[in-house]
Design brief:
Oligomer: single chain
Number of helices: 12
Shape: elongated
Helix content: over 70%
Strand content: under 5%
Order of helices and strands: HHHHHHHHHHHH
Low-confidence stretches: 1-20
Mean pLDDT: 82
Number of domains: 2
CATH class of the largest domain: Mainly Alpha
Number of strands: 0
Distance between the termini: 31 Å
Radius of gyration: 28 Å
Largest sheet: none
Amino acid sequence: MPDSTGLPGYARPFETLGVAAAAAWRRSDAAARWRFCLRMTVAAVLAFAVSHVLNIPLQGLWAVLTALVVTQISVGESLRATTEYVVGTIAGAVYAGAIGVLVPHSGMLALTGLLALTVAPLALAAALSPSFRVAPFTGAIVLLLANQFGEGLLESALYRVLEVALGGATAIVVSLLLVPDRAHGLTVNAAARILDRLAFLLSELMAGLTRPMDEAEIRRIHDDVGRSIGALQTIASEARRERRAYLVAAPDPGPLSRTLLRLRHDLVIIGRAAVTPLPEALLTPLAPALARVEESAATYLRESAAALASRRSPPPIDDVTAALESYESAVAALHGDARVGTLSSSEVGRIFTLGFALVQLRQDLGDLERIVNEHARLA
């Protein structure tokens, strides 16, 4: 099941990060849910109270509904939802008000035709841009509720815009002032979880070079990581919105998201090389170097996850570099080995594939080091 950040859960969460960190993250998730509950409740009550003071029709129904709809888990997501909701409402209300005034519609048949004429272009706009998703809904409301409460078409359109603006403004104020959750923080914590999962996956894949793997389990983990990165990219887009609104001073989350995606691609390539155990002619001379690479790289990913989550400086990458150099030396020593000459081209090709993946992994871990350091400097 997804957690509060929208990331998939796992059957064995945080295998490598440790019990204390896992418990801390679970507490953080629970606290985020309670904060979201509090913000949504306060936003609805506040919108209702302001609507009552301003004597808005229907007891401020649309202001309250808007506050509920646009209050999201993070400030950045609330900004996005409010912007889209207000833009769609203005488009729907203005168009429905204008078309209702310009086109006579006395009688049920004429009103039906006008409804179709109102909804069709707004539905097309909604299909072209998510900013207009509520435009058809608003247009229909304005058209059908006009004259029902002593309001004309233009008055009805104006009320809808004002009520939605009131509800959106209320949600934003509450999101900013009442125990706010920044999308940037959610992005960093989600990235730390993914790094921990990548460390576990790397260990499993490297072990596949020496013994058969559970391919179904590996595919499941790959799929989970892929969904997690997709969810992270959504959260990162909200974090960028916060940065553009000067609500948070933090590094651009884009490089972090892209680096995690590249790390996952590195593990996909390693998985292709590890689809079956290496033949004995390769495994015997390479096993110690491979074990060192697995231990150092997985440890680096785990420690980077912990450093990112706590906004600390990244761990030293020297052990990973030394392990990869040791592996390259072991591969170079195989040249001229008579046992290698008996191997098939596909078996030898797996070593080249693995070597390419490990070179890419080293480069991407270097990018990760720089990104973790950027977050630590701004902590």
